[in-house]
């Protein structure tokens, strides 16, 4: 499958919307139902959700963003910390006149969505947190993310980009040639290369510990929450998911077998069923 065939038959538009003075790439699809914002992971981009957009846009109005400094959305300057991501997402909602939305956040996107829900409960309907990051600071995992990403960005070798994507999957076959092409092109944009250390700043211990989603913050999340986790998630063991479930009042947890860090991609049909039922 390719990105184009994944989206074939689905009405969507991709544009650059001015958000707080920063042109922000967004894919919008769906004309009915609740607004649902899709947020990707570290060094990712909106294509992380292409397998989900056809099914979800049949029920919801989707907004898949390239977050600040990611994809084709530039960083105006400075380290990309969680409060900045939250402010950027809120500015996007305001730019569209959306008072309240639900969120599907994967990895870093789940961290951002969780923090937004804790600090701005009036803006959040429901949360689907997909292998969310931000509750622990594991030096080994942080070094793996930082080293693999920086190497793939600073070396124009397509194989390194493929290796970075394969880190996310239980089955490397889920990394298509087209997905590698898309990410390789993004990784080698001059703006992206210049800002890679600012993008990776949360893989530094002092920044990360200060921005962690604390048990106290998670206890403040009032939005109904579903956590989706891969049994073979290379960036977080299953007990981490259980601790998060226990910290968020009333949270549900679904662990998918034979699945890595991208449940929404590796098990897209099952994920779409879970997310549609929960968000509805």
TrEMBL record:
Q: Where is the AB hydrolase-1 domain?
A: 35-267
- Name the InterPro entries for this protein: AB_hydrolase_1, AB_hydrolase_fold, AB_hydrolase_sf
Write down the superkingdom of origin: Bacteria
Q: Which SUPFAM superfamilies match?
A: alpha/beta-Hydrolases
For this UniProt record, give its keywords in alphabetical order, as a comma-separated list.
Hydrolase
- Tell me any Pfam family this protein matches: Abhydrolase_1
Q: Name one GO molecular function term.
A: monoacylglycerol lipase activity
GO terms of biological process kind? acylglycerol catabolic process
State the GO CC annotations: membrane
Stored PANTHER family: HYDROLASE, PUTATIVE (AFU_ORTHOLOGUE AFUA_2G14860)-RELATED, MONOACYLGLYCEROL LIPASE
Q: What is this protein called?
A: Alpha/beta fold hydrolase
Q: Which organism is it from?
A: Pseudonocardia broussonetiae
């Amino acid at each position: 499958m390719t990105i184009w065939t994944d989206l074939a038959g689905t009405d969507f538009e991709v544009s650059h919307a001015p958000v707080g003075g920063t042109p922000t790439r967004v894919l919008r699809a769906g004309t009915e139902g609740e607004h649902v914002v899709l947020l990707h992971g570290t060094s990712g981009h909106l294509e992380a959700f292409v397998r989900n957009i056809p099914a979800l846009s049949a029920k919801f109005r989707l907004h898949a963003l390239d977050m600040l400094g990611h994809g084709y959305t530039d960083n105006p300057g400075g380290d990309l910390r969680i409060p900045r991501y939250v402010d950027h997402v809120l500015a996007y909602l305001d730019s569209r006149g959306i008072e309240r939305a639900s969120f599907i956040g994967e990895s870093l996107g789940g961290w951002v969505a969780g923090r937004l829900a804790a600090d701005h409960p009036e803006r959040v309907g429901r949360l689907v947190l997909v292998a969310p990051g931000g509750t622990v600071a594991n030096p080994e995992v942080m070094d793996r993310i930082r080293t693999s990403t920086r190497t793939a960005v600073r070396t124009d070798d397509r194989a390194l980009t493929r290796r970075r994507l394969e880190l996310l999957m239980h089955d490397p076959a889920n990394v298509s040639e087209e997905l590698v092409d898309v990410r390789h092109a993004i990784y080698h944009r001059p703006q992206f290369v210049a800002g890679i250390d600012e993008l990776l700043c949360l893989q530094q211990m002092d920044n990360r510990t200060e921005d962690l989603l604390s048990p106290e913050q998670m206890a403040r999340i009032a939005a109904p929450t579903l956590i989706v986790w891969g049994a073979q998630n290379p960036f977080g063991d299953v007990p981490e998911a259980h601790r998060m479930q226990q910290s968020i009042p009333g949270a549900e947890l679904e662990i998918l077998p034979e699945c890595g860090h991208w449940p929404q991609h590796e098990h897209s049909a099952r994920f779409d069923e879970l997310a549609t039922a929960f968000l509805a």
